[in-house]
Structures
1.
Amino acid sequence: MITEKSKPQASPSLDPIPLSVPEIHGNEWRYIKECLDTNWVSSVGPFVERFESEIAARAGTRFAVATVNGTAALHVALLLAGVKAEDEVLVSTLTFIAPVNAIRYVGAWPVFIDAEPEYWQMDPSKVVDFLERGCRWHNGALHNRQTGRRVSAVIPVHILGHPVDLDPILEIARKYGLKVIEDSTEGLGASYKDRPLGSIGDVGCFSFNGNKIITTGGGGMLVTSNEEWARKAKHLTTQAKNDPIEYVHSEIGYNYRLTNLLAAMGCAQLEQLETFVTAKQRIANRYAKGLRLPGISLMREASWASSSWWLYTVLVDNDVFGKDSRQLMRSLNSRKIQTRPLWQPIHLSGAHRDASATKMPIAERLYQQALSLPCSAGLREEEQVRVIDEIRAISAGAGPQEAPLCN
Ligand SMILES: *Cc1c(COP(=O)(O)O)cnc(C)c1O
């Protein structure tokens, strides 16, 4: 159940409307209290196991391993996939930076893939094009023709709650023996051709940070149906301890486990996932009805997809709308409505300037035009109406002509 937050009554129309905030109205207090009452607060405990098995059930994988955050899950996924230093890994350029950073943690290099224009996800045709023409088979592995490096994995990042079109990527990955790591951190509750995200590649990763569809404050999960990989993931995330009594270690491990306290919150949040996804769908539908304005392109859902509508985003065409996405952001901000552009595409990022990059025109245009709108699962209808009305008013004031009311 989503209950309304208590709000000051004086001037409700002036309350700030945040972009995306957690909803904490389920069993969170109860389960966390149970940890405190029983002394099970650390990285072993009944809620860790329960959270793992419940996420595995949702994701449709045999195993799940809880991690301290989504970035740690991605790091471990790359280790499981056997990605080595100086290898190359294909990754979406239009993404939050975490998966690209994780590629560098193992000493490998990102090969950026542009987005497709319809759903803004990794473009499978660009993946195929790079692997078929930009690479050659040599000494039993695929190598980038230009750099000579071995290509060992692909990380499709499902952004904003919508899936990447995975089938062509899986097909070519199988052909060349590449591992597929799904960054499904933004896609819990979404599916591709009726299969839950995270279960389709070799391994999937989730995040439960503060603004994800469910949150533990900070947390993550690695999911896979490969038993050997699941066992290894658990080993690597617990300092690769071979002997729990003697503390003998035969390889370098990490302190990457999630605590029982946070897993308790995760279990409570997961009970509300359907409610959250339904709320996000309702929000998306209302925006789709209310924002049919010249110069605004709406977020869409492919026929083969079921989106969780995690972060509702529109494109603002400056030439038609009369303001660009940043001007609209500032106008809305002055009316206490929080919005945000998408991430700078990572091929433009100073942090990854050493990776080879070409122009990525679609991602660059999306970066210029995209604006994410308030879409917390608990967003009230009157708040959303205020967001829509403000955007319509700005459109009417800024555009070359009155915005027609259409449905
Ligand atoms: C949130 C997110 C992650 C991981 O985030 P953590 O904060 O480490 O849990 C990774 N990739 C993408 C695309 C994300 O949005």
2.
Amino acid sequence: MGRASLLLIALLVVAVNSTPDCVSVTFKDGIVCACNATSCDDIEPLGVIAPGTAVVYRTNVQGARMERVTVKQTPQAEGFIVELDPSTVYQEVIGFGGAFTDSTGINLQSLPKEGKDMLMRQYFGPTGTEYTIGRVPIASTDFSLTQYSYDDVDGDFELKNFRLPQDDFDYKIPYIQQALDLQKNSGGLRLFASPWSPPAWMKTNGEMRGGGELKGEPNGPYFSTWAKYFVKFFDAYLSYGIPFWAVTPQNEPTTGSDPNYVWQTLFFDAQTETAFVKNHLGPALKSSNSSNEIVIIGMDDNRFMLPGWADVMFKDPEVSNYVAGIGVHWYEDEIYPVSALTHTHEKHPTKFLLATEACNGWLTVQGKGPRLGYFFRAETYAHSIITDMNNWVGGWTDWNLALDMQGGPTWALNYVDAPIIVDGKEFYKQPMYYGLAHFSKFLKPGAHRVAVSLPTLPKEVFVLGAVMVDGRRYVTLLNKDNSEDVTISIKEKGIDSVFTTVSLPSHSIVTVIWNKY
Ligand SMILES: *[C@@H]1O[C@H](CO)[C@@H](O)[C@H](O)[C@H]1NC(C)=O
Ligand SMILES: *[C@@H]1O[C@H](CO)[C@@H](O)[C@H](O)[C@H]1NC(C)=O
């Protein structure tokens, strides 16, 4: 883009950010926004959009972080034209969020009271990302201090010794309650739960970690007890004011086939998970007063199992009644094409698809653990959300809400990255935090993806179009390209001579929102 058009766009900016700005701190890989108990940058609310203007939010490698500007619409287009078609409506938005792991709670706990509140507001408050989904592990995961279950008494088929340990009261329950409270006036927070492993005594390998299956016959006591354990968990959480929307029968069930798997797991394939839902989990939830409205999300594993896993689950009408959708993780997305999601949707159009876990820094080659300020990781989040949603995924769930400087704690030493990293009395908002905010802030449950018609865009430019719950029009653009700055004019189908022109520099994310005519 030329100097003249840069100047033009600069002149069209008629309002500037008036909320607290990012206090940027530079690390080797880029900048983060530093926050403490008294100071943190806000995302300026969308507010009212003046006639003849659009609101633009910009995040880029140069340091803009959800920077809100107002842009005048013009009768002429410039650069590439992207046309939003609000009359071609695709899937409904389920929501966006992250996981209340023990490690998240441990990092929150390390902050002074006002620091904790400040961090919680970053995700669930009106000037934060406004998450509408939370994932809650049932007992321990690799992001816990130890491996623990809720009933470690061998042979306790009645679950007489089922109890929540102190970890739930210290690291999960108070923060989930606070998140529910922060979100109660802006659409609410929907929670889903997932177990990593049953108690060791229920597993063939006798340990929570490592591959193994439930002991005994598929209709035997281990299977029925394991289903009862879910209901006990929901009863217990409900008694602390925490209701659930959904549950996955098992986190990443395919990992349970590896006897040396490093952390907690349990093996199911599509057939055995389907049988467990049909004979045990589905009926146990339905017959419980606290859990009978909880829906099941099948699979909760990488997309290479699709569409086959969904075909097996939805073939049996009884199972299909219990299972509302399929959960997908993003690990190995580079290897398996995103079209597997569209194929799954086409074969099972009444079922939703939800991204149930993702994180960066899980592979040694990427640099294991946090990379502070690394913009590339914001791009991978935005790219995953855009391509998933363009293939019928209704929402996207991040992994740990907050980790420490090493990417833990994790008893399994599985250090990874997170959008918020806690460092002593401060915390840092990574570029990923803003990458997610471009979507979570505006696409609330009940919004819909709609069609966008595109010219041949430069390689590495990605677009998502939606209509927000209040009818306003939404487009997010991502430019992952290493060199090329792009100018894009956005218009709405059927409305001629009204364009919003934005510059999309290399390594940037831009959201454009305008009123319904
Ligand atoms: C919090 O951060 C702000 C902005 O960097 C700084 O001015 C203030 O002194 C910090 N407060 C504490 C208690 O460290
Ligand atoms: C469930 O609710 C019904 C109707 O209120 C009641 O009769 C029944 O005892 C309850 N069951 C349990 C396990 O609480």
